[in-house]
Write a structure and sequence with these properties.
Number of helices: 16
Radius of gyration: 21 Å
Helix content: 55-70%
Number of strands: 4
CATH topology of the largest domain: Serine Threonine Protein Phosphatase 5, Tetratricopeptide repeat
Shape: globular
Number of domains: 3
């Protein structure tokens, strides 16, 4: 089984390598940055990419966007990530168009704008970026930012599957199994599930079993979520919250649901206290939380009193949020993951 972030890391590395070109000196510098990034030497990657990015090289601009989005080698900054992605996207760089679309989808570093996300994913999908094709297909399935068009969704899944994308294969298999946007065909469903299962997609493995043991009404198949396109092998988050108010119920597992991820740090009976605590958290854990936005959500308790939940985020990927939460716990700060 692949690690939780394996598919997303593979997608990132594949995009970086695809932008590499042999020959020119500038390309050699970019390729050196890719090698450093893959090796985890982000300072060296920045040193290689930044001069090229400032000269207008779209591949290096996209690389810096990844650096700033992930907070690798420097403080996380979604605004700067969006700016670098935008610079590369304006030059028709498909990975940058896809990643900028994700930020618009989440409202990370930019104002939330699903229509803008759709526009960017469409541009990337036209250049045969399979992750963009799957995201766009899911939008057409759900009607998120576009009118529902199940047939168009299937065409996009077919294109992604043909390119070998595991989640495109799973989504296409599911469409064949359920007859969503295409005539039901269990043999074709099995074929695409098998291709996705070979890449470790657990949902596909479960659906293969279901073809032999039909699902009950309580266990229907479900389309992949955006998060699963990036992280098909989910990491469950089942920790109970340790908060100032012990009556606040535990949130459900965050990593298996769609949408942005938040790190809940604590809950308070006073909103001003929650805001002050964020400042103190930033002082104590600047390397972990620096560059992250935060929010304070209000929950009404059964006794009529309000509880104010302090949450850091949003973060685009649950494995990254969980990694930060684990490090916070190692530094004596309780936390757990939530989604809206």
């Amino acid at each position: 089984m692949k690690a939780p972030s394996a598919f997303w890391r593979l997608a990132v590395i594949s995009a970086l390598v695809a932008l590499a070109m042999p020959g020119l000196d500038a390309r050699a510098d970019y390729n050196a940055g890719v090698e450093a990034y893959v090796a985890g030497d982000y300072a060296a990657a920045i040193a290689e990419w930044q001069p090229l990015a400032l000269e207008g090289d779209p591949a290096s601009q996209h690389g810096l966007g990844l650096i700033y989005e992930g907070g690798r080698g420097l403080a996380r900054d979604y605004r700067l990530a969006a700016e670098w992605y935008q610079a590369a996207a304006d030059q028709n760089c498909a990975p940058a168009q896809f990643n900028l679309g994700r930020l618009y989808r989440l409202g990370a570093g930019v104002e939330p704008d699903m229509h803008k996300a759709i526009e960017l994913w469409r541009l990337a999908a036209q250049q045969d970026m399979p992750q963009a094709q799957v995201f766009l297909g899911l939008a057409y399935q759900s009607g998120d930012g576009v009118e529902v068009d199940l047939s168009r969704a299937v065409v996009l899944f077919q294109r992604a599957a043909k390119l070998g994308d595991p989640m495109g294969q799973y989504a296409l298999g599911l469409a064949y199994e359920t007859g969503t946007g295409i005539e039901p065909d269990l043999e074709s469903a099995r074929f695409y599930y098998e291709r996705a299962a070979e890449s470790g997609v657990e949902q596909a493995i479960r659906r293969l079993t279901s073809l032999s043991f039909p699902p009950t009404p309580e266990d229907p198949p479900a389309p992949p979520t955006e998060g699963e396109v990036l992280e098909p092998v989910a990491t469950q988050v089942n920790e109970e919250p340790t908060a100032a108010d012990a009556s606040v119920e535990a949130e459900s597992s965050a990593s298996s649901q769609p949408g942005p991820v938040y790190i809940q740090i604590a809950a308070y009976v006073d909103d001003e206290l929650a805001e002050r605590e964020w400042g103190q958290m930033m002082d104590r854990h600047h390397k972990l939380l620096g560059g992250l936005p935060h929010r304070i959500t209000t929950v009404q308790r059964d006794d009529g009193n309000s509880v104010y939940r302090l949450q850091a985020g949003p973060l685009p990927a649950s494995d990254e949020a969980q990694a930060i939460c684990i490090l916070l716990k190692q530094n004596d700060t309780d936390c757990f993951l939530v989604r809206d």
